[in-house]
């Protein structure tokens, strides 16, 4: 939302979760989150079970809880939205704490909070235990189009360069006594954005030419083609399978 | 604006995921053509580095904070900017990659909502802004001000359009019984305001790029006139002077329009900017209020159909409450939709006037210092004193 993405999530480690091939982890997290979203919101206990499952994985990965919890703060804007829901939604009202709240709005808020938090927690856990490069390789092994993987890898490789370029422009503005206070300064900032685009695009042209001169023909050579073993797939599938069991139980008890 | 997990139900998330995948597949083909550049010898291998760097730019520019005042600040979403600068296909690709990386590496936006986020932020904003931009550029006269106005309107419309599509998705697969009319009105109102900010930044950024590298602005390609060598009246076939002499006369300021886009909008064109801005504002007010009044009917219809078709299993989406909201609040919606439009127009006018006043003040100071230095474009019109010093024959 409003804040930038200043810090990367990855945390180096040697746990079993770290060692799993990236594509099995991505597939597992995706299946897990889909299962969570498909769970009926009335089955409150199921979300507790999901949280326990994630906590177990986090314990296995030996990523400190503080690391995970602070990274989950990215969700905060939606908490605000969820808090508003009981007030604006319609339907039967309930009296609580002296306020008239909508019953469906309360359920909706609970739904967004529970599923959103679990989704963010799962994503943070994935990003904390998998390197950037590995995630890209994993996406490629999951049959994402190679061109898209290449674009993403170029973005990651040069993202810091472009961000640094922007930081230098900011220093240059500051050293000339510029402070952005309001809308009046947007012209200067927009010129910064325009200059940044030109620099990024021209850098892309130079990168392309440099790669051409080194024999680039549009595809990247595949350096490691290690497929995941059956045991690795099984251990990665443990999380979504357990979640699926919980989900089915949730529908059953409804 | 990133939608988290659990906001929309599973079927809608999967459906928008399919839409996003299809759009990205189409864009992967289209981007090769867009990024091939002017040189014919460049092949498809140009796509990855350039689209990747554009994605890095979008990623970085989203971190550029634009202060609004009172300690708050906003940032670009970048859909309209990417569409205008690099074209719709590359724009969709760049934004999709940025959203994918944000979801996977920074846990911003849910994984199951990735398709929804790509559809809303990547596809809807890019397609709407590019279509509006091209249509406006085709209709308006071929001038620099037209490009500015088209950039403004297209960026302004792209944000409420995404909000409207979000409301539609929420009607299909929302997880709380929020009255749709209210949601739509609130979303459109808020996002029209956000769109004004997006439009101001996008317009200024496109202007900055146009001033330096007009060939890089994809959507405005073909608008810049090719440079022409003018021969003066001296160059009669009989006298046959040297070509250098005729070239020297081509700087004659009365000869006509500037050969290349002028480096910056001087106060001379303030009146045109005014007229263009006003026309753009009225146009978008009309279109926005059209959205506000037309969309609920379609939404109600779709939601009603959905509710009817799944009446048996879905209690929450039974058709009666939705139909009730629609009938009961339509008049109110129109009213409040129009109100939102009026607020948007008022804010646009106020903001535009503020910017113009600032530009003119600075322009006056510059013109007092070096009145003749900037006049190389040959435009003699001078709107400095309004009625005072406007020379005849140039308006």
Automatic annotation (TrEMBL), chain A:
Membrane topology qualifier: Multi-pass membrane protein
Which controlled-vocabulary keywords does the entry list?
Cell membrane, Membrane, Transmembrane, Transmembrane helix
Key word Transcription regulation present: no
Parts of the chain that traverse the membrane:
20-37, 43-60, 72-89, 109-127, 233-252
Query: Which N-terminal stretch is annotated as signal sequence?
Result: none
Chief location of this protein within or outside the cell: membrane
> What is one GO biological process annotated to this record?
cobalt ion transport
Q: Tell me if Transmembrane is a UniProt keyword of this record.
A: yes
Superkingdom, according to UniProt? Bacteria
Q: Which InterPro entries match?
A: ABC/ECF_trnsptr_transmembrane, ECF_CbiQ, ECF_transporter_component
Which Pfam families does its entry note?
Answer: CbiQ
Q: State any GO CC term.
A: ATP-binding cassette (ABC) transporter complex
Compartments, as annotated in UniProt: Cell membrane
Q: Which NCBIfam families match?
A: ECF_T_CbiQ (TIGR02454)
- Which protein are we looking at? Cobalt/nickel transport system permease protein
Q: Say which species the protein is native to.
A: Streptomyces radiopugnans
UniProtKB/TrEMBL annotation, chain B:
Note down the stretches annotated as region Disordered.
234-263, 367-395
Coarsely, its chief localization is membrane
Choose one Gene Ontology CC annotation of this protein and give it: plasma membrane
Compositionally biased residues, Low complexity: 235-257
Q: How does it sit in the membrane?
A: Multi-pass membrane protein
Give the residue range of the signal peptide: none
Q: Which Pfam families match?
A: CbiM, PDGLE
| Regions that span the bilayer | 7-28, 48-68, 80-106, 118-137, 149-172, 192-212, 273-292, 339-359
Q: Does the keyword Iron apply?
A: no
- Organism superkingdom: Bacteria
Location comes to: Cell membrane
Output this protein's name.
Cobalt/nickel transport system permease protein
Q: Whose protein is this, by species?
A: Streptomyces radiopugnans
């Amino acid at each position: 939302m409003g804040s930038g993405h200043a810090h990367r999530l990855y945390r180096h480690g040697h746990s079993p979760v770290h060692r799993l091939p990236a594509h099995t982890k991505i597939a597992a997290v995706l299946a897990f989150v889909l299962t969570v979203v498909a769970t009926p919101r009335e089955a409150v206990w199921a979300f507790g079970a999901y949280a326990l499952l994630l906590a177990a994985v986090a314990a296995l990965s030996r990523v400190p809880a503080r690391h995970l919890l602070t990274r989950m703060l990215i969700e905060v804007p939606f908490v605000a939205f969820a808090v508003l829901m009981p007030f604006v939604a319609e339907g039967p009202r309930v009296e609580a704490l002296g306020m008239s709240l909508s019953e469906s709005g309360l359920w909706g808020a609970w739904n967004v909070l529970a599923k959103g938090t679990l989704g963010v927690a799962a994503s943070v856990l994935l990003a904390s235990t998998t390197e950037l490069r590995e995630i890209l390789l994993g996406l490629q092994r999951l049959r994402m189009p190679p061109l898209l993987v290449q674009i993403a890898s170029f973005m990651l490789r040069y993202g810091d360069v472009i961000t640094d370029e922007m930081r230098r422009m900011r220093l240059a503005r500051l050293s000339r006594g510029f402070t952005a206070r309001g809308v009046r300064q947007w012209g200067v900032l927009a010129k910064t954005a325009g200059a940044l685009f030109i620099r990024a695009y021209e850098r892309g042209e130079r990168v392309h030419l440099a790669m051409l001169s080194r024999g680039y023909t549009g595809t990247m050579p595949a350096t490691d083609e290690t497929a995941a073993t059956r045991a690795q797939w099984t251990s990665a599938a443990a999380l979504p399978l357990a979640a699926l069991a919980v989900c089915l139980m949730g529908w059953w008890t409804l | 604006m990133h939608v988290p997990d659990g906001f929309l139900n599973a079927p809608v998330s999967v459906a928008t995921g399919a839409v996003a995948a299809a759009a990205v597949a189409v864009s992967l083909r289209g981007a090769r053509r867009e990024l091939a550049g002017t040189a014919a010898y460049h092949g498809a291998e140009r796509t990855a580095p350039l689209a990747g760097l554009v994605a890095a730019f979008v990623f970085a520019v989203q971190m550029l904070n634009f202060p609004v005042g009172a300690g708050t600040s906003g940032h670009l979403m970048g859909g309209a900017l990417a569409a205008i600068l690099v074209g719709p296909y590359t724009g969709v690709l760049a934004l999709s990659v940025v959203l994918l990386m944000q979801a996977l590496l920074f846990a911003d936006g849910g994984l199951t909502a990735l398709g929804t986020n790509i559809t809303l932020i990547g596809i809807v904003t890019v397609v709407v802004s590019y279509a509006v931009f091209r249509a406006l550029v085709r209709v308006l006269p071929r001038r620099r001000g037209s490009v500015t106005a088209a950039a403004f309107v297209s960026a302004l419309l792209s944000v409420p359009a995404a909000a409207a599509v979000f409301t539609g998705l929420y009607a299909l697969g929302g997880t709380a019984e929020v009255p749709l009319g209210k949601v739509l009105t609130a979303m459109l109102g808020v996002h029209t305001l956000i769109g004004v900010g997006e439009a101001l930044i996008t317009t200024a950024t496109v202007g900055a790029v146009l001033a330096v590298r007009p060939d890089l602005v994809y959507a405005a390609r073909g608008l810049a006139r090719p440079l022409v060598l003018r021969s003066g009246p001296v160059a009669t076939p009989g006298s046959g002077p040297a070509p250098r002499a005729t070239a020297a006369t081509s700087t004659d300021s009365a000869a006509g329009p500037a050969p290349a886009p002028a480096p910056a909008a001087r106060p001379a064109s303030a009146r045109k900017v005014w007229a263009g801005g006003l026309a753009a504002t009225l146009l978008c007010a009309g279109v926005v209020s059209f959205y506000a009044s037309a969309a609920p009917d379609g939404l109600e219809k779709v939601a009603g159909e959905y509710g009817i078709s799944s009446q048996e299993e879905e209690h929450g989406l039974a058709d009666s409450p939705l139909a009730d909201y629609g009938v009961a609040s339509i008049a109110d919606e129109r009213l409040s939709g129009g109100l939102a439009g009026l607020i948007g127009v008022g804010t646009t006018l106020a903001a535009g006037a503020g910017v113009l006043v600032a530009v003119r003040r600075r322009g006056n100071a510059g013109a007092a210092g070096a009145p003749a230095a900037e006049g190389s474009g040959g435009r003699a019109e001078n709107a400095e004193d309004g009625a005072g010093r406007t020379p005849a024959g140039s308006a």
